[in-house]
């Protein structure tokens, strides 16, 4: 079982961001964190958390978790402490400009052992284009400070496929990244979402497949394994892999999503409403064919692969054909895809039989 905690507060709204986040609701932080406790208590019962069903990983995302003081997280960690698996991976996202030394030290004391920094680029002009509130020096200082504090695992997000991206610009980003004490990179192509600043300028997304393939090779050639279409590292995030393995997960907070067996649970997205009704959900029942489809798409875009036992005879025949064509590999009862950029096409081809 995984635990995701959504923090909807942000110090600025990035031009590409479609997540449930707000820059004008800071006065609600304490009330919101108290509401998380109420929902958490209910979810621990729903998910039957206990010694035989522990919380394997925790991920605090947003929004911007570093806009909330560590003291407000403490009651949550006190509540989940009896349910945490040994050596539990506990990650928090952080923005370089708000992740102060004091904040990082406070989170480290609570048990956070992994930080994921929303760097996006080390190029100041590109940061302005993306609407980021930090500059390059903020990122460099925050990552180095986190390492000095003692965080064992550090990750950064980078964005590519932005209008104006060039091979020299992206190489400079990768050069800078590998000069830092990180063991993981999440690499995302810019996508244009509705109700974002970039919605009116869709030309800002300008991914070139040849440049994408070069970028992936540039990272893997330096020793970071690509274990999912967007994730590379000498360390694999256990939380990420848990999603791809379809493990159950608690979704805590306004705009989060929970998953248990064949149902998804959606708390309300409005922060004020959530504070008043933290245990009110919209429930979605997922049909077996839809669950299979998700397992195919997630498995073929990651190191998890697809269990052959899930497939019909015709689907197995198609997967075996792709193995003979050198597109898939079969090992110990699972099919694996070596080219994650083809993941969607492969999933559709197998699913269609």
Automatic annotation (TrEMBL):
GO molecular function: 4 iron, 4 sulfur cluster binding; coproporphyrinogen oxidase activity; metal ion binding
Keywords: 4Fe-4S, Chaperone, Cytoplasm, Heme, Iron, Iron-sulfur, Metal-binding, S-adenosyl-L-methionine
Residue span(s) of domain Radical SAM core: 1-228
SMART domains recorded: Elp3
Localization, UniProt: Cytoplasm
Annotated family: Belongs to the anaerobic coproporphyrinogen-III oxidase family. HemW subfamily.
Protein name in the entry: Heme chaperone HemW
Species per Swiss-Prot/TrEMBL record: Sulfuricurvum kujiense (strain ATCC BAA-921 / DSM 16994 / JCM 11577 / YK-1)
């Amino acid at each position: 079982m995984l635990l995701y905690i959504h923090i909807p507060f942000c110090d600025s709204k990035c031009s590409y961001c479609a997540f449930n986040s707000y820059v004008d609701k800071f006065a609600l932080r304490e009330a919101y964190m108290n509401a998380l406790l109420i929902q958490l208590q209910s979810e621990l019962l729903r998910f039957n958390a206990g010694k035989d069903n522990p919380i394997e990983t925790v991920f605090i995302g947003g929004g911007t978790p570093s806009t909330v003081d560590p003291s407000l997280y403490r009651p949550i960690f006190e509540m989940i402490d009896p349910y945490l698996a040994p050596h539990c991976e506990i990650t928090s996202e952080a923005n370089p400009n708000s992740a102060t030394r004091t904040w990082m030290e406070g989170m480290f004391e609570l048990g956070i052992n992994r930080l994921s920094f929303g760097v996006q680029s080390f190029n100041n002009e590109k940061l302005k284009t993306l609407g980021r509130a930090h500059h390059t020096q903020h990122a460099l200082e925050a990552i180095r400070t986190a390492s000095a504090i003692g965080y064992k695992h550090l990750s950064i997000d980078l964005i590519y496929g932005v209008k104006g991206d060039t091979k020299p610009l992206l190489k400079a980003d990768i050069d800078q990244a590998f000069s830092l004490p990180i063991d993981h990179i999440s690499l995302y192509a810019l996508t244009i979402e509705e109700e974002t600043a970039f919605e009116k300028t869709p030309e800002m997304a300008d991914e070139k497949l040849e440049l994408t393939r070069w970028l992936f090779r540039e990272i893997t050639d330096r020793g970071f394994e690509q274990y999912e279409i967007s994730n590379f590292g000498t360390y694999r995030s256990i939380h990420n892999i848990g999603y791809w393995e379809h493990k159950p997960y608690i979704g805590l907070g306004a705009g989060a999503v929970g998953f248990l067996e064949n149902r998804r649970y959606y708390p309300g997205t409005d922060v004020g409403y959530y504070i008043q009704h933290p245990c009110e959900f919209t429930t979605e029942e997922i049909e077996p064919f839809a669950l299979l489809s998700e397992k195919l798409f997630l498995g073929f875009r990651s190191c998890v692969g697809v269990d052959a036992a899930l497939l019909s005879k015709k689907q197995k025949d198609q997967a075996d054909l792709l193995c003979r064509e050198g597109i898939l590999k079969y090992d110990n009862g699972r099919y694996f895809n070596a080219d994650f950029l083809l993941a969607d096409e492969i999933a559709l081809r197998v699913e269609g039989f």
